Amino acid sequence: MEWSREERYRRIEDESEKNLKELKEKVDNCPYRQKFHIQPKTGLLNDPNGFSYFNGEYHLFYQWFPLGPVHGVKYWYHLSSKDLVNWKDCGIGLKPDSYFDSHGVFSGTGLVKDDKLHLFYTGNTRDENWIRNPYQCLAIMDKNGEIKKMDKPLIKAPPKGYTDNFRDPKVLKNKEKYYCLIGAETQSNQGTIVYYESDDVLEWNLKGEISTKFKGNHSGFMWECPDYYEIEDKGVLMISPQGIEPEGDKYLNIFQSGYLVGDKIDFENGIFNHKDFYELDRGFDFYAPQTMEDENGRRILVGWFGLPGLNCVTDENGWAHCLTIPRELKLKGDRILQIPVKELEKLRKTERKVNFALNNEEKIIDDFNFRTYEMICDFNDFSGNYIGVKIRKGEDEETVFYYDLNEKKLVLDRSKSGKSCTDEYGVIRKCKMNCEKLKIQMFVDTSSVEIFVNDGEEVFTSRIFTKEDSNSISFFTDGNTKVKASIWSI
């Protein structure tokens, strides 16, 4: 179903109670609703926003269009948590109700200052000719959870030389100054980051671009959702570039999310010396990640479990997308490790253990009937061409993850993973990895799988839409291997 412009920019406040109730019932009856992932009550969810630790709690917002599974006028929806597992519904955090965000409260970040949570965001507006003007805006939340917008934007327009693709402010403190990093597109269609400096987060002065070596035809026309942090005397810059062409096994999704690790950014001169660009995730459905530092000094990431510009299987049920599980980030050389946060162990219920050897065979786990679960499995002493695991096996369905010993590649195959709307971008994802041992940690929800390999060296994040009775697990090899696994129902 095509949505008109008028329908996409209709606000939830103007919708009838009857229509909202019918939409909610439609969503609730969807067989693909998640059990332990953050998902919208109705409509479309996209980027995580304002991810912060404030007043003894984690605060997380997300982009939300309430009335259907399309990108329309965006709100920020607000959740809070003590443990990153159990989330309290705090309702709508920010509404598109001001002249500087009339067509959507777009993405942004959170910063704790003066015992208040400062929420920086892009206000999306359109004039009568549908020409866009992005404003960079600020709202402030107090310890009672009350959020108040500033009455005027902080930055009123993109600087000369940049298009209206100018959004997603990341605000941080460095030494005694505050810096605002904004994803941008130059007039020559080059993705970049423009940054500003401030003494008080209210008055901002343009500094210029962050200079990187990641430029040219292979770096994309627009960099969305910048995120920057410093760890172990290094700087880590995350971006979601749009417009990178596929290159072998890399960059196969419609858009990418990745990172650069290097020296700390020289904010005085706008210079970032860094190593290679790496994709954060090797799966089919990951974008716009955001990180924060909690009270224990952990750097934690949450991403959008989806991508822009694509349909979703659940569209017909009136909703689309969810967020990933929270992941703790660690650094190993110039690579990021992503490790599911320890708090997720609270979700574990019944445990099933298996321990056996395989010899050119596939072994199905008997009487396995968990639909949502966490699994940790170790493969040791392996030989042959491949070793792997199949999940969500049914009569004509299976999702296959394996290690190709000859090519030294990890492979995710979702060609038989049930319904799909994105096969045009392929059904297989691969990445290089030299494995002397193989440890796989999976989180399987009703319609998703997140796969962490060798303690987060590589991650595959993907939606899968299988039948309700496709729940079997099997392990396989064409050679020899020892398999040891623990599986917990969730």
Automatic annotation (TrEMBL):
SMART domains: Glyco_32 (SM00640). One of its GO terms (cellular component) is cytoplasm. It is an enzyme of class 3 (hydrolase). It is found in: Cytoplasm. Its main location: cytoplasm. Belongs to the glycosyl hydrolase 32 family. This is Sucrose-6-phosphate hydrolase. It comes from Clostridium vincentii. The gene is scrB_3.
